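batch_manifest entry 22 of 60
target: Peptidase M16
source organism: Streptomyces cahuitamycinicus
requested by: lab member K.T.
priority: normal
notes from requester: please return tokens only, no post-processing; we will run our own comparison against the previous entry in this batch. if the run fails, retry once and flag.
--- input ---
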Amino acid sequence: MTELATMDFHSRPQAGDAKPWAFPAPERGTLDNGLTLLRCHRPGQQVVAVEVLLDAPLEAEPAGLDGVATIMARAFSEGTDKHSAEEFAAELERAGATLDAHADHPGVRLSLEVPASRLAKGLNLIADALRAPAFADSEVERLVANRLDEIPHELANPSRRAAKELSKELFPSDARMSRPRQGTEETVAAIDSAAIRGFYEKHVRPATATAVVVGDLTGIDLDALLGDTLGAWTGSSAESRPVPPVTADDTGRVVIVDRPGAVQTQLLIGRVGPDRHDRVWPAQVLGTYCLGGTLTSRLDRVLREEKGYTYGVRAFGQVLRSAPDGTGAAMLAISGSVDTPNTGPALIDLWTVLRTLAAEGLTDAERDVAVQNLVGVAPLKYETAAAVASTLADQVEQHLPDDYQATLYRQLAATGTVEATAAAVSAFPVDRLVTVLVGDAAQIKAPVEALGIGEVTVVAAE
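--- output ---
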């Protein structure tokens, strides 16, 4: 008989003691031109992230020119007084850098990532883009044409179409938040280089802007670099714009965006609630995560695992616009898609989950898993300089203190099950939710009307 060979196994490595971690604190300062600066030294992060925030919110766009902030943001990388659009792109590539920009309700944000060894080059390029953008007619015309091409694709996307309809339903018709962030076909078509330059000259200046610089700054004289680049950007002084309050109507109702023949129904159920300045925010984050933040959440457990209606349903809170006086707001929403025949049953089960949450509350086990997922993995979430810079920039946009994120993690860890339950129930009251369904109205209207969750209206898909 052949003797069996034996193997020696190495002992399993043991986990070490957890090291204390906190979200990094920035140093705050101001350049001579009035630009606010946040810097954060992150040893080992050889790709430096730079975020520049401009006080050019969507509600400042001129009447009939919705989307001008978006086109301006895109045009920043399309040439300066020193480089054509092609030359500017080539200079970014030579520096190993990327430059992105976008516009949202709080303002316009430019995001630069560049190797630390080429930070001077990257800062020169973003400074030139801000100081003297070309806004050439041909480039603006191309950007407008590209944006017009994007709009039909967005309207054809069920989730984007649902978001558009929910904003239209929630906010007053004269509020900028009720209309698409990047404009409509009519308003974008009216944008030209003169409109872009007019918006730029009225709203883009260093005195109301903030720059965030994060990365390994070892051996870098950042003050000198900034003085020669962003510090050389000049502009008139001005006070920050007042932030108007957010108003919304969350009367329970249903809007069906008709897509005849659709095999799935896109769900978007939402309302407007408190933002990060409200003391309930940490508990709301925790409770919302337990409700629909991950694959083990209640909504997924019922609608996906038990019933097989969907590939996934998520609940989330997204800050729309913040103000230090507490007049800001966040979108609180539940999103997902279900197969068309089961739209009615899926909504029944979804509302049952919400009612059960109100009647029985969360469990300690659900709360503990949520804390571990939100707080325990935070060090991994912020391994890159870009992630840290983006969060610091969010804090600036939302008028939050520099230590907000670090404080939030401590608050999440200290939030109890009862608090999280109360916040989740308050965030998603069963009788104060606006439901948007993008699907086949002929198949889903009658079952939805039978649910009694509000008046049902059908609109065309466009």
